[in-house]
Specification:
CATH class of the largest domain: Mainly Alpha
CATH architecture of the largest domain: Orthogonal Bundle
Helix content: 40-55%
Biased composition (Basic and acidic residues): 78-102
Domain Cyclin-like: 192-276, 289-371
Number of helices: 17
Region (Disordered): 1-25, 48-105
Domain Cyclin C-terminal: 285-402
Number of strands: 0
Protein name: Cyclin N-terminal domain-containing protein
Distance between the termini: 68 Å
Strand content: under 5%
Shape: elongated
Largest sheet: none
Length: 419
């Protein structure tokens, strides 16, 4: 009766787990891969026993209320074994006749046979292990497949269209030479002031980048006197707000913000002139649309996002940065921000794939951003630095510049590793 006692009471003295706690697990002693050894009956009924006689048509079907003994369990298992296997006879099982049934005799019993684990195709496993990590991470849109605003079905086609048309949104890098009364420094003063107005009105990020784009495209085609340069700026912001914002500032607000230098009528007249000059083309890919895509490819957190936009807005003020296309500016901003945060060069294959730029292609533009970052808090045009020194923008301007990029070859400092 020692074996019977072991079946009813665990050796450890701990209470026997309930059926719910055990789930579908089987005791280790139930798993026997021995020829002729009858499996121990499972104490959990997963499904009712089929009313089937098997090979012996004369034997009655199993009734669900019949007590289960070891002899009865062995006889059931012997019917399922191949004829060439050796089974125990009734005389061999005679010692088990008097053993008690498991449970109260009312639970349906499902006798399970041990099934060996199938062999794994090692070649297939090795092939999966040898696949590069980038092949699994290239799809950056799978997490947004259920979000209709992400437009995952055609997002690649969308950015392909942006890349094909971004050149149309660019201006000549020397257009200021055609202006007679204004220069690049005046443009910088205007945009630095508009960044503060944008911050004061709490407008969307898209609005700022479209405003600067409208200004440059207008100044490329129209000669503007110095006294009307600010009028061009506030009118460009009004048009950008109408295109991007849900709640548009009224014209009177722009009159007040410009210290009543212009009337409402003058702003509306400039609005008509600007739209006609640009042929009502407001749909242009600015660095903002590329920035959002590249930040997603970089798997950015809030800090990387804010530092990247800080780098990009520093470039808005600089006339010389017009020589770079919007996509390259956005990619270089993310690259420079990663270098500043990680203190080493960091540009993954996923970022390279989605931006279409390598780290070497971004290095020239990135070095200029580092120089702007280093001088952002000095001089007279500090609007961007003050904006990103606030807690609202995560004090992104206080991140140390990635000065090691200015060194020959852009190698990282000895204290940090290069990725």
């Amino acid at each position: 009766m020692k074996a019977a006692d072991e079946n009813r009471r665990p050796v450890t003295g701990k209470p026997v787990p309930s059926v719910r706690e055990m789930g579908n697990r089987r005791a280790l002693t139930d798993i026997k891969n021995l020829v002729g050894a009858a499996p121990y009956p499972c104490a959990v009924a997963k499904k009712p026993m089929l009313q089937k006689n098997g090979r012996d048509e004369k034997k009655p079907a199993l009734a669900s209320s019949r007590p289960m003994t070891r002899k009865f369990a062995a006889s059931l298992a012997s019917k399922e074994e191949p004829e060439h296997q050796v089974t125990k006879t009734d005389s061999e099982l005679g010692a088990d006749h008097n053993k008690e049934p498991i449970g109260d005799g009312t639970i349906d019993i499902d006798v399970e046979q041990y099934e060996p684990v199938p062999d794994v195709d090692m070649d297939e496993t090795d092939h999966k292990d040898s696949m590069s990590e980038d092949e699994f991470t290239m799809d950056i849109d799978s997490a947004d497949s259920g979000n209709p605003l992400a437009a995952t079905e055609y997002v690649e086609e969308l950015y392909k269209f942006y890349r094909e048309n971004e050149a149309k949104s660019c201006v000549k890098t020397d257009y200021m030479s055609s202006q007679q009364d204004i220069n690049a420094k005046m443009r910088a003063i205007l945009i630095d002031w508009l960044i503060e107005v944008h911050y004061k009105f709490e407008l969307m990020e898209e609005t700022l980048f479209l405003t600067v784009n409208i200004i440059d495209r207008f100044l490329e085609k129209q000669v503007v006197p110095r006294k009307k340069l600010q009028l061009v700026g506030v009118t460009a912001m009004l048009l950008a707000c109408k295109y991007e914002e849900v709640s548009v500032p009224v014209v009177e607000d722009l009159v007040l913000i410009s210290d009543r230098a212009y009337t409402k009528g003058q702003i509306l007249e400039m609005e008509k002139l600007t739209l006609n000059t640009l042929q009502f083309n407001m749909s242009v890919p600015t660095p903002y649309v590329f920035m959002r895509r590249f930040l997603k490819a970089a798997d950015s957190d809030k800090q990387l996002e804010l530092v990247s936009f800080f780098m990009l807005e520093l470039c808005l003020v600089e006339y010389q940065m017009l020589k770079y296309q919007p996509s390259l500016l956005a990619a270089a901003a993310v690259y420079t921000a990663q270098c500043a945060i990680n203190r080493c060069q960091h540009w993954t294959k996923v970022c390279e794939s989605h931006s279409r730029y390598t780290g070497d292609q971004l290095l020239e533009c990135s070095r200029m951003m580092v120089d702007f970052h280093q001088k952002a808090g000095t001089g007279k045009l500090t609007g961007v630095h003050r904006k990103y020194s606030t807690f609202k923008f995560g004090c992104a301007a206080k991140v140390e510049p990635a000065l090691f990029l200015l060194e020959s070859g852009g190698t990282s400092p000895p204290s940090s590793g290069t990725i």
